[in-house]
Each structure stands twice: as C-alpha cells, then as structure tokens.
Amino acid sequence: MSGFDLDRIGGRRALDNLVDVVLRAGQEALQIQNAGFDVDIKEDESPVTQADRAVEELIGAHVRKVWPSAAFLGEETGSSDGDALRFVVDPIDGTRAFMRGLDTWSVLVGLEWEKEPVVGIAFLPAAGDLFVGVIGGGAYVNGRPCRLSKVDALERSLVGHGGLEQFTASGLESLLPAMAKATFTQRGLADFANYAALLRGQMDAVIDPGVKPYDIAPAAVLIREAGGRLTDLKGERTIYGGAALASNSKLHEALVAMVGRSIED
C-alpha cells in the first residue's frame, strides 16, 4: 500500500490517543453491560443498545475534534462525507453476544485512506484483548505480534464461520455442508472473535457471509499485516463484497474454489 503513513493522521501519538479512546469506550460499554440495559430492534431486525450508541458517540466526537475534515461511517449514525481519510466504526461488534453476557463482543475502528483499509483497532473489553494493526507496520495483540497458523491443507483445517442465519439470509446454505465435508472441523464464534482466533493461529480460516465494511475493516488490516489474506468470497481484495473470506494465506485459493463449487451446485 503506497501513499499512507501515520503522519497522515498526526503520527504515532495520534494513533495512541485514538487507541486510548477505543479503550475508554470499551470500558464504558462493559459498565453498561454489567449494570443492565434496554434493547431496541432496528428496521433491519438487528438489535441495538445504549452501549452501541454511547460508544459510537464517544469515538465519533473524538474523530470530529481531531480530524474534522475526515469522512465517517458508523453502524448506528451512518456515513458523512470528507477527505481521503475515513473512519469506519462498529461500536459493538456482536451486540447479540453483548446482550447475552458473552465475552466475544468488541469495539471496532478501522481507518481507510483513499478507500483502502490502513489502520485496524479491535478491543474485546470483556476478554481484555486489544488488537492494533497499521499497514506496513505489523499486527499486534496485547503488544505481541500476531501469528497465523501454518496449516496448508483444507482437510486439516479449522474454519470459523459467522452465524448460521447469515448463510441462510445470503442464500449460501449449500456452503455449510460443503465446508463440513472439506475441512477438519468448524467453529462458529461469529463477529471479530473469529478473526481474533485466526490472528492467534487458533483457526486457519474464516468464512463470514453477510457482513458490512465496518464489520471487517480492522480485520482486513490486521490479517494482511500478519501475512494472511482477506477477500470477498470470490477472492477479490475488498471489504465491500458483502461477505468475507479470511485465511492464513496458505488455504485461500482452495477455500475460494470450495466456495465457488458449493455456490454453483
């Protein structure tokens, strides 16, 4: 990726300040989770809580103050136009997990430069894990480099996947039995938790149908910087394909072929 370095956003200190805001927002969401909250259902039938709104407002306020000319895309507040720098925010990735007291939900902030993901921040407050990646600068979890697995055969692979309703809503039901037959085992952690496991080498790939850019913008940076690949289901390098396929890179072409065959059948 050319044309971007941290000086574009004010250097390392500006990034560290943004990470601090994400950490603070995550702790506020955790307090809301522990104290109790109401749940509303949006027009698309997805849930939203006051934690979603509070986190997006906190992060959005920081962005507007520090980078007033930047564009912004948030799950709850929508998009606003700006310059070549865009912040992409999912305030609570995994609201359903948040609602049920699971620890797999996260706060996600991605930065795009000229429509390409260049910075990824993912904080899992209940689990206490922080992932930070910068294009050309590596990918780290809790300050240590992310390490992908070395598995290079589908029949030995552990593949994570999104919620089963994502497959049915996307018309990809046939992909589920195909995945079960082609791979060693499968686990459905859903949301960024799948990518967190991939980034630790605990999974070898992730198939994630029915996603939005704010769901996967940070993961795209982190996985690519760790040496893996994140594409759409056809293998195209994009976060705008409506679905994501991520891997340690060794399995990627085989996974794209498997997905293609299942869709054709």
Description:
By secondary structure, the protein is α+β, with helices and mostly antiparallel strands. The protein folds into two domains: 6-145, Fructose-1,6-Bisphosphatase, subunit A, domain 1 (Fructose-1,6-Bisphosphatase, Chain A, domain 1, 2-Layer Sandwich); 154-264, D-Maltodextrin-Binding Protein, domain 2 (3-Layer(aba) Sandwich). The protein contains eight helices and 15 strands. The strands form three sheets. Strands 4-3-5-6-7-8-9-10 form an eight-stranded mixed β-sheet, with helices on both faces. The chain has a five-stranded mixed β-sheet with strand order 12-11-13-15-14, with helices on both faces. It has a two-stranded antiparallel ribbon with strand order 1-2. Helix 1 packs antiparallel against helix 2 (50-66) and helix 6 (191-199) packs parallel to helix 7. The longest helix is centred in the first third of the chain and has 25 residues, at 11-35. It is globular and about 50 Å long. It starts with 10 loop residues before the first helix and ends with a helix. The model has no long low-confidence stretch (mean pLDDT 95).
